[in-house]
Design goal:
Layout (H helix, E strand, L loop, with lengths): L3 H4 L3 H14 L6 H11 L5 E2 H8 L3 H13 L3 E5 L6 E5 L3 H25 L3 H31 L1
Antiparallel strand pairs: 1-3, 2-3
Helix pairs in contact: 2-3, 3-5, 4-5, 6-7
Length: 154
């Protein structure tokens, strides 16, 4: 395992971590998870919860909760340590899985808007919901095209 000095962010790295958080928090990512994502992005290799806690100056339990959340978002990946219960965390490089998850959400949003459009009395609301469904479907198609390009590179 790398020593503590290798995980202590430089001033520029701290700025990057905080800038990452500033971008992700308005999208609903909790502050600690957003900072952890920035921290993982600046590390070439997976890091332990101890290193994360030290580097971000947070508790190990906060680091664990944030890491599990990033796993759920498919932004981080847990790496088991052979012969140990410990885990290391690194940034996920499975962009296809990230896009596939986003596509499922876009499909669900489009379906919800279409369902809502069928059930409302107001023509204005129906038009708005139909337009939103079309918007989510168009984004979904664009993401699918991007996903196809990524898969072709594999």
């Amino acid at each position: 395992m790398q020593n503590k000095a290798n995980h202590e962010p430089t001033t520029a790295e701290r700025r990057f971590i905080e800038d990452t958080a500033r971008l992700l928090v308005p999208w609903g990512v909790p502050q600690t998870a957003a900072r952890l994502y920035g921290f993982l992005l600046i590390h070439a290799k997976p890091v332990s919860l101890d290193a994360i806690a030290e580097g971000l100056e947070i508790s190990k339990s906060s680091a664990s909760v944030a890491a599990r959340l990033l796993e759920k978002y498919t932004l981080a990946h847990r790496h088991g340590v052979r012969g140990s219960k410990r885990a290391l965390y690194g940034v996920s490089d499975n962009y296809a899985a990230m896009l596939a998850e986003q596509n499922r959400l876009l499909d669900a949003l489009a379906a919800l808007m279409r369902s809502g459009a069928r059930g409302v009395r107001s023509e204005g609301a129906r038009d708005r919901l139909t337009e939103m469904a079309d918007f989510y479907a168009a984004i979904r198609q664009g993401m699918e095209a991007t996903l196809a390009r990524l898969r072709a590179k594999e």
